[in-house]
Amino acid sequence: MKTAYLTGTRQIEIRETPEPHLMNPGDVLVQIEAVGVCGSDIHYYATGRIGAQAVQYPQTVGHECAGLVVRAGAAVPATELAPAQRVAIDPLISCGECDQCRNGREHTCRRQSFLGCPGQAPGALAEYLVMPARCCYPVPRAMTAAQAAMVEPLSIGLHSRNLAPLPRGSQAKIAILGAGPIGLCVMLACRATDGSSACRAHVIDPIEERLEIARRCGAEWTANPQREDVVRALARKEPAGMDVVFECAGSQAALDQAAELLKPGGALLIVGIPELDRVSFDPHLWRRHELQITNVRRQNKCIASAVEMIASGAVNVDPLVTHRFALADSQRAFGLVESYGDGVVKAMIDVKAPGEEAE
User: Fold this and answer.
1) Other CB atoms closer than 10 Å to residue 54's CB: what's the count?
2) CA-CA distance, 330 to 129, in Å (whole number)?
3) Which of 292, 290, 3 lies closest to 128, judged by CA?
4) What is the pLDDT of residues 219-271, one digit of tens each?
5) Average pLDDT over residues 109-114
6) Which of 2, 3, 198, 313 has its CA 20 to 30 A from that of 165?
């Protein structure tokens, strides 16, 4: 089978590798159809690391994925995962036994394996992948492979919304700093969960094409920080300040903006992966306003809800998928996303060409 490998900084090669085989009765062999290029993939592509997690070349990558069941182990009921069933995949494989798993925090499992993470599980940018059946979520026949691959980033948006202390009984005012795929998924999840009339979303990003998509997806107000003082502009529109700010850019500048945008008692959710190993906060401002800070780690038990949101039409993720590539063009896809070129939001790699029969 064909598999994409990182072979050096900003270098991707497509290599022939053996097809994986079922080793455990609870596993499923999946023919991968589509893989979204995530910001974390770009960290590995451009710098070879995220914090202490460093790539050992060659390294497989990719985790936002969907595919078709080829065959399942003996312990997997055929009524749940039959051949040709399209599935959205949770890329986290938890141990199920540690204190975190026992307390319902599989996303912070102490012995977890995550697709495409160095030293953990293989990346999804391959024609076939073996996953535990519990990580494979059936999707309706009408859901496309790209929509199913978008389940994973939407689940992060939903988990972020679930952690946010949004006010009850009044219209929530939120700001989203960074209108990439995760920022837009946060906005979609907030609007779908709380109702468009109960959530006023304000989105800040330096890329005009992304702001246009944010408006199409329901943002009430958008601004480009390279063209105006967004803190002052939003203060004029919402003088009481934001209830919650979702930082989805992973930058120090966005963290500084968040502190100024929040109302006293407001909450910052850090969703983006910081570009640096250290970030800083003004302790006096945060203390005087008694601001809350919550870090978001991927998602927790939100995959099924994300599938339902997309399947029911409560959330439309289609506008986020702006570019499509074949597996052979993975290098070009990653380069485009790293450079923010051509107004890209989500680049989707079609590992199995649409219309190609499952083997």
Assistant:
1) 13
2) 17
3) 3
4) 999 999 999 999 999 999 999 999 999 999 999 999 999 999 999 999 999 99
5) 98
6) 313
Domain range 155-295, its CATH number among 3.20.20.140, 3.40.47.10, 3.40.50.1820, 3.40.50.720: 3.40.50.720
* Longest pairwise C-alpha distance within the chain: 62
Q: What is the mean pLDDT of the chain?
A: 95
Q: What confidence tens digit (pLDDT) does each residue in 2-58 have?
A: 999 999 999 999 999 999 999 999 999 999 999 999 999 999 999 999 999 999 999
Q: Is pLDDT at 359 greater than 60 in this prediction? A: no
- Amino acid sitting at position 120: Q
Q: Answer whether residue 355 shows pLDDT above 70.
A: no
CATH architecture of structural domain 2-150+317-350: Alpha-Beta Complex (3.90)
218 with 140: CB under 8 angstroms? no
Q: List the one residue out of 161, 147, 195 whose CA is nearest residue 311.
A: 147
Q: At 89, list the tokens.
A: 């995949």
Residues 6+ apart with CB under 8 A from 285: 259, 260, 291
What are the structure tokens assigned to 286, written together? 């945060």
* Residues 17/330, Cβ–Cβ less than 8 Å: no
Q: How far apart are CA 108 and CA 104, in angstroms?
A: 9
